[in-house]
């Protein structure tokens, strides 16, 4: 995995604006951010930030559960489930993670159990470390663009085929 630091919010915003400016054409009917937010109910970049934050929180949760349960545990018939894994799974079952994942961490932090609060602090740190050091942001963008292009071609091909029938 790539070990480069995650780009800062300011640099991401600046690059996104530059990309939008390059894509914008005078005759384009592209929606402004405000118009898109009104039409869709959210700003697309804000929604992406929320979903990526939730993904990082879920990933950090899985890392902590795997560490607590022991390596190789997933293939064993005699599965060892740690107390922390049980707490995480119970909390996720009661209230699935929504939004950016912060509410899940806040609920863990509010627990009366000291081990659960420590696991929540660890979750915060693992999430940050994963975002800064392990998550390959460039690969995500590249693969997402490839997937969208593949889907576009398949949909247009299907549309053309149905139109000719």
UniProtKB/TrEMBL annotation:
Q: Which organism is it from?
A: Ostreococcus tauri
The domain of life for this entry's organism is Eukaryota
Q: What protein name does the entry list?
A: Unnamed product
Entry-linked InterPro entries: Chaperonin_RbcX_sf
């Amino acid at each position: 995995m790539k070990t480069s630091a995650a780009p800062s919010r300011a640099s991401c915003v600046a690059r996104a604006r530059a990309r939008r400016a390059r894509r914008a054409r005078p005759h384009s009917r592209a929606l402004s951010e405000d118009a898109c937010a009104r039409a869709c109910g959210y700003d697309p970049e804000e929604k992406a930030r929320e979903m990526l934050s939730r993904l990082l929180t879920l990933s950090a949760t899985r890392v902590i559960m795997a560490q607590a349960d022991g390596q190789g545990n997933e293939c064993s018939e005699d599965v060892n489930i740690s107390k922390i894994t049980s707490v995480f799974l119970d909390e996720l079952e009661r209230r699935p993670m929504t939004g950016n994942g912060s509410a899940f961490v806040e609920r863990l932090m509010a627990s009366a159990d000291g081990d659960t609060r420590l696991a929540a602090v660890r979750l915060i740190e693992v999430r940050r470390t994963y975002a800064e050091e392990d998550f390959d942001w460039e690969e995500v963008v590249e693969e997402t663009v490839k997937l969208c292009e593949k889907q576009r071609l398949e949909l247009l091909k299907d549309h053309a085929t149905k139109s000719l029938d």
